[in-house]
């Protein structure tokens, strides 16, 4: 099966090269047969990558310990569930997994548009094939996952051998979320290849109108949703496994995942400017280019080790390849832009500073500033070493100081932006839309202050959360009221009907509400408390209203590890509440230890209990307890964001909707302005 | 007598439970909140992580909580120095003297590190200036001037653009 996998990868490389070279020839000659054959070569590339990936999984499931990658990342006792995850636990496998996910996207695009967009698709196909060639080069010639296990003999000749068992999987990865976190994050990274291919293809082809934007919208949203979900799952994994009581440590690899998310979010907003008003074309194209480049940069940072990170799962010497690839992409993008920049001229003017257009500009400014600030902070240790010879660390305190104010400004615009009308917002409209939200925001702040809320940023955050949540709820309320008045249906049914009539708009609001929930959770971090104590049986420890009583220890032998648990009884206000079992797992194969945190989670707070090991001084087990307010809101917010994105991906139930009671005035096209095709299709957005 | 027995048993159990407390005072291992605050400004130098010593969990290590390898002894040292009456800055300086500037959890506000602090503000200012410039330019420009012009290829008329759009829409129905 390893030979089959290797051969499939090699053949995939050949097909991708044909799809690339043949695609360029098809663009030049416009020969229909050549167009068709290159498209089919693209599809064949994807199918061959699937074969190769399944071959590697087969090798894991059959415990084939003659393959070096299987030996390094699996063992016989590893459960089938984690044998799936072993695929992406190392460098070679994760690069193949990149190719695999990219192949799913590429195949979906090629099949979906096989008989459409005749002028554009050959360009798109060439760009996608170019990206595939890069990763297949790594898969075949730099980091092959199918290398046989070889050991040097006494005479220096390498002998191929098979081991009886493997080294096992990194314990930190033996956690259910680790099976779904990397695929989601990778699906985000790879998914941004599609909007990149369409943007570059449209620019190269000088494809008329904003059609490429419409075509890529759902692909961008899918990639963004996976990226969001991947980040959220990673944060939850860090919270539940690493045992430090936090969920985001501003580690370079965490930052790397955030960067394309920030520019991708900016793009999802600014793209509306191009759809509705034919503006910001240059900006949008460069946002897509940068998002894709940041995806590659993220992969580079994870692999290269140029910045120190706790994510040291998969390192290799591929950094020069990634730097070279980023250089080529940048050159191609610049070249295409310089050649065809006149194609990107804006079609419209700005009618008023107080308008949706302005809010999008400022929203994009903040997202990009946040992205550049995180990027430069992440790379600052490298810069400081270059310039001064002294490596200066940039840790979480720096990133918090820099990004909290930016995050709050973005939150503010989340509430303001959707309520401003396109072109111009009247004073009456401002009063009508912002009166209640402002009043409720201020009232919430006053109440919180009265209850002793004195952390400045958290207080501002809660005020803004109340403000934004009210604006969103009012939007639903007003729209639903109109539908209810017409149909007589219940309020909930009217709200669903309203959402289904304009899924993009109201799905977007649900996403915004999800972000409000996330910010509520983040605001709680200012009030985290923790306490640690060496515990004997019967001894108690107090944190907030909770009393923890050490009831004993037990040992839980499992197939792949031995777990040692503290048995902790939790009392709330001196009444028995529950038992918690914080655990240490010892993995015999790798001689490594993992942590399993025990969490009692409510919407108000998390009681987060860690068996922190044995004290070196007293030899007693150490219990470390955290009281983390509002953390559950973050996970709830993450789920809401994903749900909102799924809603926004649904097609509208009706294509045209003009509500009498809608807060936005109907926009009158300017005499000289050309309405975009999207504006012709939809009432408002 | 039957009522007394459980009480005696409980007394013995409590006595056993509290005996080690007399030997090892509870809290001997506790790190003060002040030391943890100072620890937030010192990077853990265990070599396996990139966290502040105050919250270092040494992922994957045998002792999560303040990492046994470096952060826990460092926080104890901080506690000791605080007890001697040293100020926060003096303590941080003593760590910097020992490990170099890499021990800062966040860049110090002096020398080249000031660049790190200045950068976000500079980005924001440059970005804001750009946005204001773009807004003022968009506001000045009449709609008729929009579109390819000047030395660029022949301007596209709205009719031509609409025709092209219609063609694109036909080709790209999704």
Measured distance between first and last alpha carbons of chain A: 52 Å
**Main sheet characteristics of chain A:** 6 strands, antiparallel
Q: Assign an overall shape of chain A.
A: globular
The number of E-state strands of chain B comes to 0
What is the fold's blueprint, element by element?
The complex is a heterodimer of chains A (685) and B (174).
Chain A: H1 2-29, H2 32-61, H3 68-73, H4 80-85, H5 91-112, H6 121-142, E1 150-152, E2 158-160, H7 176-191, H8 193-205, H9 211-241, H10 252-277, H11 281-304, H12 319-340, H13 356-388, H14 396-416, H15 427-450, H16 456-487, H17 491-501, H18 503-523, E3 529-534, E4 540-543, E5 546-557, E6 562-572, E7 575-580, E8 583-587, E9 592-596, E10 598-601, E11 605-614, E12 621-629, H19 631-649, H20 677-681
Antiparallel strand pairs in A: 1-2, 3-12, 4-5, 5-6, 6-7, 6-8, 8-9, 10-11, 11-12
Chain B: H1 4-23, H2 33-39, H3 71-83, H4 88-99, H5 114-140, H6 158-171
What can you see in these coordinates?
- The complex is a heterodimer of chains A (685) and B (174).
- Helices cover 60% and strands 11% of the residues of chain A.
- Chain A is of the alpha+beta class and 685 residues long.
- Among the domains of chain A are: 1-174, no CATH class; 502-659, no CATH class.
- Among the domains of chain B are: 31-106, Cytochrome C biogenesis protein (Helicase, Ruva Protein, domain 3), CATH 1.10.8; 108-144.
- Chain B contains 6 helices and no strands.
- In chain B, helix 2 (33-39) packs across helix 3.
- Chain B is elongated and about 80 Å long.
- Chains A and B meet through helix 9, helix 13, helix 14, strand 3 and strand 9 of A and helix 1, helix 5 and helix 6 of B.
């Amino acid at each position: 099966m390893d030979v089959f996998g290797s051969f499939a990868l090699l053949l995939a490389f050949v097909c991708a090269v044909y799809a690339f070279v043949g695609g360029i020839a098809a663009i030049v000659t416009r020969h229909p047969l050549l167009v068709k054959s290159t498209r089919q070569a693209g599809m064949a590339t994807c199918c061959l990558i699937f074969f190769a990936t399944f071959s590697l999984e087969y090798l894991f499931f059959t415990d084939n310990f003659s393959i070096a990658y299987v030996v390094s990342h699996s063992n016989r006792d590893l459960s089938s569930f984690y044998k799936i995850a072993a695929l992406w636990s190392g460098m070679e496998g994760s690069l193949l997994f990149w190719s695999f996910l990219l192949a799913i996207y590429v195949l979906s695009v090629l099949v979906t548009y096989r008989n459409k967009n005749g002028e554009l698709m050959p360009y798109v196909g060439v760009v996608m094939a170019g990206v595939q060639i890069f990763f297949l080069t790594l898969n075949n010639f730099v980091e092959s996952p199918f290398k046989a296990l070889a050991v040097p003999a006494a005479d220096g000749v390498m002998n191929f051998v098979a081991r009886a068992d493997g080294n096992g999987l990194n314990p930190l990865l033996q956690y259910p979320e680790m099976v779904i976190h990397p695929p989601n994050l990778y699906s985000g990274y790879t998914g941004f290849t599609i909007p990149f291919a369409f943007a570059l293809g449209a620019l190269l082809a000088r494809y008329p109108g904003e059609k490429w934007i419409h075509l890529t919208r759902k692909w961008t949203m899918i990639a963004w949703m996976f990226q969001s979900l991947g980040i959220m799952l990673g944060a939850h994994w860090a919270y539940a496994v690493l045992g430090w009581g936090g969920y985001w440590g501003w580690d370079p690899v965490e930052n790397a995942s955030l960067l394309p998310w920030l520019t991708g979010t900016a793009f999802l907003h600014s793209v509306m400017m191009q759809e509705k008003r034919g503006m910001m074309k240059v900006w949008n194209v460069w946002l897509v280019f940068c998002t894709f480049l940041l995806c590659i940069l993220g992969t580079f940072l994870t692999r290269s080790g140029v910045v120190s990170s706790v994510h040291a799962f998969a390192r290799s010497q591929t950094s020069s390849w990634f730097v070279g690839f980023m250089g080529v992409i940048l050159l191609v993008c610049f070249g295409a832009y310089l050649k065809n920049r006149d194609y990107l001229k804006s079609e419209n003017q700005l009618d008023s500073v107080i308008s949706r257009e302005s809010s999008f500009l400022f929203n994009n400014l903040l997202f990009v500033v946040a992205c550049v600030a995180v990027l430069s902070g992440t790379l600052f240790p490298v810069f400081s070493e270059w310039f001064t010879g002294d490596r200066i660390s940039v840790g979480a305190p720096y990133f918090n100081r820099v990004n909290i104010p930016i995050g709050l400004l973005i939150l503010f615009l989340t509430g303001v932006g959707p309520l401003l009308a396109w072109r111009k917002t009247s004073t009456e409209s401002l009063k009508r839309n912002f009166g209640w939200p402002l009043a409720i925001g201020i009232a919430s702040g006053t109440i919180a202050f009265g209850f002793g809320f004195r952390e400045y940023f958290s207080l501002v955050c809660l005020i803004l959360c109340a403000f934004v949540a009210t604006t969103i709820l009012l939007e639903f309320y007003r729209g639903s009221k109109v539908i209810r008045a017409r149909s007589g249906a219940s309020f909930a049914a009217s709200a669903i009907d309203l959402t289904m009539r304009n899924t993009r708009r109201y799905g977007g609001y649900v996403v915004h509400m999800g972000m409000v929930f996330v910010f509520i959770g983040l605001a709680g971090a200012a009030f985290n408390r923790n306490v640690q104590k060496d515990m004997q049986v019967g001894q108690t420890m107090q944190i907030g209203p909770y009393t923890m009583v050490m009831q004993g220890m037990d040992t839980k032998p499992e197939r792949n590890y031995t777990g040692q648990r503290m048995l902790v009884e939790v009392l709330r206000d001196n009444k028995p509440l529950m038992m918690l079992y914080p655990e240490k797992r010892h993995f015999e194969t790798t001689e490594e230890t993992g942590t399993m945190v025990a969490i009692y989670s409510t919407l108000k707070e998390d009681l987060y209990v860690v068996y922190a090991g044995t004290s070196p001084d007293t030899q007693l087990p150490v219990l470390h307890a955290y009281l983390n307010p509002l953390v559950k809101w973050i996970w709830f917010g993450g789920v809401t964001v994903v749900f909102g994105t799924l809603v926004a991906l649904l097609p509208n139930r009706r294509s045209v909707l003009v509500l009498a009671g809608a807060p936005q005035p109907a926009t009158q096209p300017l005499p000289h302005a050309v309405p975009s095709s999207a504006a012709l299709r939809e009432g408002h957005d | 007598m039957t009522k007394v027995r459980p009480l005696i048993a409980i007394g013995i159990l409590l006595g056993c439970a509290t005996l080690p407390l007399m030997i090892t005072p509870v809290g001997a291992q506790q790190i003060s909140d002040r030391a943890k605050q100072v620890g937030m400004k010192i990077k853990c130098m265990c070599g396996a992580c990139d966290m502040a010593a105050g919250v270092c969990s040494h992922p994957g290590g045998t002792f999560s909580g303040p990492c046994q390898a470096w952060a826990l002894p460092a926080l104890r040292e901080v506690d000791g120095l605080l007890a001697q009456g040293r100020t926060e800055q003096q303590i941080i300086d003593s760590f910097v003297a020992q490990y170099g500037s890499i021990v800062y959890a966040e860049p110090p506000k002096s020398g080249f590190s000031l660049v790190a602090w200045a950068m976000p503000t500079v980005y924001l200012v440059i970005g804001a200036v750009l946005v204001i410039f773009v807004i003022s330019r968009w506001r000045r420009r009449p709609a008729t001037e929009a579109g390819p012009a000047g030395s660029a290829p022949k301007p596209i008329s709205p009719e031509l653009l609409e025709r092209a759009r219609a063609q694109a829409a036909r080709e790209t129905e999704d």
